[in-house]
Design goal:
Elements: H1 2-16, H2 21-35, H3 40-51, H4 57-95, H5 97-101, H6 104-138, H7 141-159, H8 164-182
Helix pairs in contact: 1-2, 1-4, 2-6, 3-4, 6-7, 7-8
Length: about 180
């Protein structure tokens, strides 16, 4: 039964999310928390890990949730669930590409979906950010200051178009250094 639940939860996520992995965050968060598969803190931690590992975010997090919840078979079910909708949609779109490309209905739907996806990403950012900074504040003002500094540094580097690997590596190094310095 757990395998079907994992497959179905991630299938819905893959089917009803447009805009990629970040747009999936609110739905993934909702499904995972509703089933009790991970805590909110575990989700935040794994989002950080999945961003620093190769591969698409949705595949990384679905594989992880499935593995933690139901072992290797759970990982396979969750991963298949999240990728199958996109695979099927791409097959249909490829078959009818010319007709879809020129459709006013599709153009209108995409014009409405683009700002909605940005809103979903912003909501996920605020939700995850609140969790990160609440945890840091619970560890003390110095921990909160370190987290805010790393966040601002990462934002500045991202706006300056620095490579994400540099930002992730630097942020991890600063976090490790701060952890040793603060005794965390």
């Amino acid at each position: 039964m757990i395998y079907l639940e994992l497959f179905w939860s991630f299938f819905k996520t893959g089917l009803f999310t447009f805009g990629g992995g970040y747009a999936m965050l609110p739905l993934i968060q909702s499904e995972v928390l509703a089933h009790g598969w991970l805590s909110a803190e575990e989700i935040v931690n794994f989002i950080a890990v999945s961003e620093s590992t190769p591969g698409p975010f949705a595949v990384n997090i679905s594989t992880y949730v499935g593995r933690v919840t139901a072992g290797v078979c759970g990982a396979a079910c969750a991963t298949l669930g999240v990728v199958l909708p996109s695979f099927l949609v791409i097959l249909v779109v490829a078959r009818f590409f010319e007709r879809f490309r020129r459709s006013r209905l599709v153009e209108g739907a995409m014009a409405g979906l683009r700002p909605a996806v940005v809103g979903l990403i912003a909501a996920a950012l605020l939700s995850l950010g609140r969790g990160v900074f609440t945890r840091a504040a619970g560890e003390g003002w110095l921990s909160l200051l370190v987290s805010a500094t790393i966040f601002l540094l990462a934002a500045v580097l991202a706006f300056k178009k620095k490579h994400p690997i540099l930002i992730i590596g630097l942020s991890a190094a600063l976090g490790v250094g701060a952890g040793f310095a603060l005794g965390l």
